[in-house]
From TrEMBL:
It holds the Pfam family Glyco_transf_4. Residues 3-152 form the Glycosyltransferase subfamily 4-like N-terminal domain. SUPFAM superfamilies: UDP-Glycosyltransferase/glycogen phosphorylase. InterPro entries: Glyco_trans_4-like_N. Coiled coil: none annotated. This is Glycosyltransferase Gtf1.
Length: 350
């Protein structure tokens, strides 16, 4: 997503450097020519970023991962420059920690450490209002130091790639609808609940399920599909380089997560006009679907509610025009404008 952000800002005339440890990293080939790829020198990362800041003196430095936040403020302080350091927060850090860790002492200590680090930042970019709330409630970040800015998820290449040949034989069979979901095969994505809901839908009508992604729960999910008696109508083809061709031909897109930040796949499916069903998890889906107006929201872990929503989306789908409204704030041009306004940068006009 950082590549999309860099491209969108560069397209508005902003000078953008993308600092990378390895120019051969996946997805960097999607950077536009207007984005300067700056490969950090080997050795101390802090020293490498410090030298970059001393030479280029950018107005703003955005760190996009928790592990890079300390690097950014350490380098800024070492360089002694007036560059503003903004932490871009893509996940509800405290909520996620509490989901993963039941030890209250560990939760308290980790939050204390994060809060101490976050006091050194000049501001924060939250990709959803839920993440902004998490920062305020969990880490004590003043709300006035947070900008809630949408990811530039929807780019032209999404539409181009969606028109490529249909990649799966089930998607070439219009007689049987296909439910699609995408994500790592891990606890957060809650695919066990999706499989149980799918089994209820399958008992009422002929339908198929495709889940794109890889992860350590693959065998567990396949075994569950066999126990539920739906293995013949479930496929886990793994990670796919072009999920948009799958999305474009799906009957319904489902997100069953326990938590999210701002789920990009849900926005991408909305951009392609696919009917949407999502768990009302923390955070993102309620914001994207405008409280359920632009897609179905169901309680987390509620198998029957999820099954009912999938069945309703199959039987009486919202129009593609309605669904696409959910993606409007996440178009690259809209997101770039929000970034420029928040960062106090003026777009360059010809």
């Amino acid at each position: 997503m950082l590549v999309h952000t860099a491209n969108a800002l560069a397209a508005r005339g902003v000078t953008v450097h993308l600092l990378v440890a390895d120019r051969d990293h996946p997805f960097l080939d999607r950077c536009d020519d207007a984005v300067a790829l700056s490969e950090l020198e080997t050795g101390s990362p802090v020293a490498a970023v410090r030298r970059f800041l001393e030479q280029e003196r950018p107005a703003v430095l955005i760190s996009a991962k928790l592990r890079d936040d300390r690097l950014a403020v350490d380098a800024r302080d070492a360089a002694g420059v007036d560059t503003r350091v903004l932490f871009r927060v893509g996940n509800p850090l405290v909520h996620r920690l509490r989901q993963r860790t039941k030890n209250p002492i560990r939760v308290w200590y980790t939050c204390m450490q994060m809060a101490r680090l976050y006091r050194r930042a000049d501001g924060f970019i939250a990709v959803s209002s839920g993440i902004a709330d998490d920062l305020v409630r969990g880490l004590g970040v003043p709300r006035e130091r947070i900008w809630t800015l949408p990811n530039p998820t929807v780019v032209d290449s999404l539409y181009d790639e969606s028109k490529e040949p249909v990649p799966h034989r089930w998607l070439r069979d219009d007689a049987v609808p296909v439910v699609l979901s995408i994500g790592g095969l891990r606890r957060q994505k809650n695919f066990g609940v999706l499989l149980r809901a799918f089994a209820e839908v399958r008992a009422r009508c002929h339908v198929r399920l495709i889940i794109l992604g890889e992860g350590r729960q693959r065998e567990r999910l396949l075994a569950l599909a066999r126990r539920l008696g739906v293995a013949g109508d479930v496929d886990l083809p793994g990670w796919q380089p072009n999920p948009y061709a799958f999305m474009a031909h799906a009957s319904v897109f489902v997100m069953s997560s326990r938590w999210e930040g701002s789920p990009n796949a849900l926005v991408e499916a909305a951009a392609l006009g696919v009917p949407l069903v999502a768990s009302d998890c923390f955070s993102g889906p309620r914001e994207i679907l405008q409280g359920g107006r632009l897609g179905h929201l169901v309680p987390v872990n509620d198998v029957s509610a999820l099954a009912a929503a999938i069945h309703q989306a199959l039987e009486s789908p919202l129009s593609p025009e309605c669904t696409r409204l959910a993606a409007e704030p996440y178009k690259a041009e809209s997101s770039a404008g929000a970034y420029l306004k928040a960062l106090g940068l003026e777009p360059v006009t010809s």
